[in-house]
């Protein structure tokens, strides 16, 4: 695991760590306020700390966890993607997306993913390891700093939302995921001070962890990567469905929505001639009718060498029409970042291919 970082600890833990360095406990609040409140890591900028203490405190509590390998922008600067290298060489990705009324960070919870969904570049690469609490949080704080510096065009200069839809299955890294959510939502200097209601946690359907999250009483939105309404197809597209079937997964999602009052987001990647048939739209509509749920249709982000492709626009429109006719709120996700390997895992796959001398088309598998 990476070196200990301020974000791995609650405030009491930081106070204990500071005391262990021979500093007064209140220094923990000072350095926390710099990191979470001012988005500052540079010791020289922490002028309220004694000069003799700055380097010692930052070296011990703010070690470098993420080193940018590639940074790309598109959508006239409104979308920015970063590929990070961790202390052990593992690669993770995060994306910053600006809109006129908000800025959203999409972050990773694992390096790689063990869920093995065949149309997903990250899933096909396999799991390297779980991220630490601080490695998760540091992505968000870094992106919040980018937003504050005006790097995202046409958007407010403050990060307001975080979605755990980057690399990995968040609920497979459960304890660190929940601790990270608490760091992000606790007020400064304890944390970043985001609203719980502006945090979205995605899952392929790990039912015990979904129910555990519901019991946490965190008002986060749950996003369920469903991708098929029937067990036969979902067994293939989302292999964890072989353990927890559609009915059980949806029941856990609906219970979370009922407990939090937050409608569950049903993520559905439309794949040409695979899951985009009208009868599947009708079945999905029947499963969701009258429930606190919203369907987020995702046009598949095709990659070179992949057998999977996005559904044609007329097919997509008919799928939307049928869901809405069933009374199910439905939107089509904004296709951000296609020209910068926007789908999760693609930028990391390209980097690995470049290092290994493998053509990128052979390395990139899917969305």
Overall description:
There is one protein chain. The protein is α/β, with parallel strands linked by helices and 367 residues long. It has two domains: 6-61, Orthogonal Bundle (DNA polymerase, domain 1); 67-363, TIM Barrel (Alpha-Beta Barrel). 37% of the residues lie in helices and 19% in strands. The chain contains 13 helices and twelve strands. It has helices at residues 11-20, 27-37, 51-61, 121-125, 133-148, 174-185, 207-215, 231-237, 246-260, 278-288, 313-325, 346-356, 360-363; strands at residues 67-74, 79-85, 91-99, 102-106, 110-112, 127-130, 161-164, 199-203, 221-225, 264-270, 293-299, 329-332. Strands 1-2-3-4-7-8-9-10-11-12 form a ten-stranded mixed sheet. It has a two-stranded antiparallel sheet with strand order 5-6. Helix 1 crosses helix 2 and helix 5 packs parallel to helix 6. The protein is elongated. Mean pLDDT is 92; it is low at 355-367.
> Into which percent range does the helicity of residues fall?
25-40%
**Widest sheet, order of strands:** 1-2-3-4-7-8-9-10-11-12
Strand content: 15-25%
* Secondary-structure element string: HHHEEEEEHEHEHEHEHHEHEHEHH
**Biggest sheet record:** 10 strands, mixed
Q: How would you name the CATH homologous superfamily of the largest domain? A: Aldolase class I
CATH architecture of the largest domain: Alpha-Beta Barrel
Kindly provide the radius of gyration, computed on alpha-carbon positions and rounded to a whole number of angstroms.
21 Å
The backbone outline, from C-alpha atoms, is elongated
Mean pLDDT: 92
Number of strands: 12
What is the CATH topology of the largest domain? TIM Barrel
CATH class of the largest domain: Alpha Beta
Secondary structure class reads alpha/beta
Q: Report, as a whole number of angstroms, the end-to-end distance.
A: 28 Å
Total domains, how many?
2
Unreliable runs, pLDDT <50, ≥5 residues? 355-367
Number of helices: 13
């Amino acid at each position: 695991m990476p070196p200990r970082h301020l974000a791995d600890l609650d405030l009491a833990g930081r106070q204990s760590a500071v005391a262990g360095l021979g500093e007064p406990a209140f220094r923990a609040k000072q350095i926390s306020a710099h990191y979470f409140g001012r988005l500052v890591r540079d010791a020289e900028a922490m002028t309220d700390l004694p000069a003799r203490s700055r380097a010692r405190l930052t070296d011990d509590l703010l070690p470098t966890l993420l080193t940018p390998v590639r940074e790309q922008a598109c959508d006239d600067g409104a979308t920015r993607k970063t590929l990070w290298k961790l202390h052990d060489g593992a690669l993770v990705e995060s994306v910053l997306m600006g809109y006129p009324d908000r800025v959203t960070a999409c972050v990773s919870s694992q390096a790689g993913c063990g869920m093995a969904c065949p149309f997903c570049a990250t899933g096909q690469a396999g799991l390297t390891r779980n991220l630490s609490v601080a490695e998760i949080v540091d992505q968000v704080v870094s992106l919040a700093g980018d937003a504050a510096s005006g790097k995202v065009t046409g958007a407010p200069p403050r990060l307001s939302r975080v979605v755990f839809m980057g690399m990995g299955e968040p609920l497979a890294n459960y304890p660190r995921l929940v601790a990270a959510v608490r760091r992000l939502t606790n007020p400064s200097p304890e944390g970043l001070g985001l609203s719980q209601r502006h945090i979205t946690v995605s899952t392929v359907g790990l039912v015990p962890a979904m129910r555990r999250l519901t019991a946490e009483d965190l008002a986060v939105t749950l996003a369920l990567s469903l991708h098929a309404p029937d067990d036969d197809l979902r067994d293939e597209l989302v292999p964890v469905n072989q353990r927890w079937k559609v009915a059980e997964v949806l029941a856990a999602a609906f219970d979370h929505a009922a407990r939090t009052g937050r409608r569950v987001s049903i993520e559905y990647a439309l794949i040409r001639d695979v899951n985009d048939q009208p009868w599947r739209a009708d079945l999905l509509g029947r499963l969701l009718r009258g429930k606190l749920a919203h369907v987020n249709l995702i046009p598949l982000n095709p990659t070179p060498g992949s057998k999977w492709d996005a559904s044609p626009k007329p097919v997509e429109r008919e799928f939307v029409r049928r869901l809405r006719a069933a009374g199910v709120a439905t939107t089509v996700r904004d296709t951000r970042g296609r020209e910068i390997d926007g789908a999760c895992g693609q930028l990391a796959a390209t980097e690995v291919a470049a290092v290994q001398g493998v053509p990128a088309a052979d390395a990139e598998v899917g969305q």
